[in-house]
């Protein structure tokens, strides 16, 4: 006599095993295809460098320090703060990452650079511009 009570569980285990194997093969193929992950890393590094260059130019034009506390920090610490939030179309980073320099400059002209700490304080109402 054949016990059919385990048949559903066995089928589910086989299906799960096939899905795992498919995912392994998919991952292997993806890693092997033209070293895509390395090119993504280079692309992302270039995007970060473009953002740093843009932010450095904007910071230099604004005097090289935080608008609120007048502190001087590394570039990564500064945030673009929109003076009038109702005029905000998109974030400055949005335009820079897409290579839309004219739009990035137009959006940045609506902003001031503030350090991350002061930016949080401005939004919480504990500091003013």
Description:
The protein is mainly α and 129 residues long. The chain has one domain (34-124). It has five helices and two strands; from the N terminus they run H-H-E-H-H-E-H. The protein has a two-stranded antiparallel sheet with strand order 1-2. The chain is elongated and about 70 Å long. The protein starts with 6 loop residues before the first helix and ends in a 5-residue tail after the last helix.
Helix/strand structural class: mainly alpha
First and last CA, distance: 84 Å
Supply Rg. Answer: 25 Å
Low-confidence blocks of residues: none
Portion in strands: 5-15%
Mean pLDDT across the residues is 84
Gist of the model:
Helices cover 58% and strands 8% of the residues. The protein is mainly alpha-helical and 129 residues long.
Summarize the topology.
Elements: H1 7-32, H2 36-61, E1 78-82, H3 92-97, H4 101-108, E2 111-115, H5 116-124
Antiparallel strand pairs: 1-2
Which descriptors would you attach to this protein?
mainly alpha; single chain; 129 residues; 2 strands; 58% helix
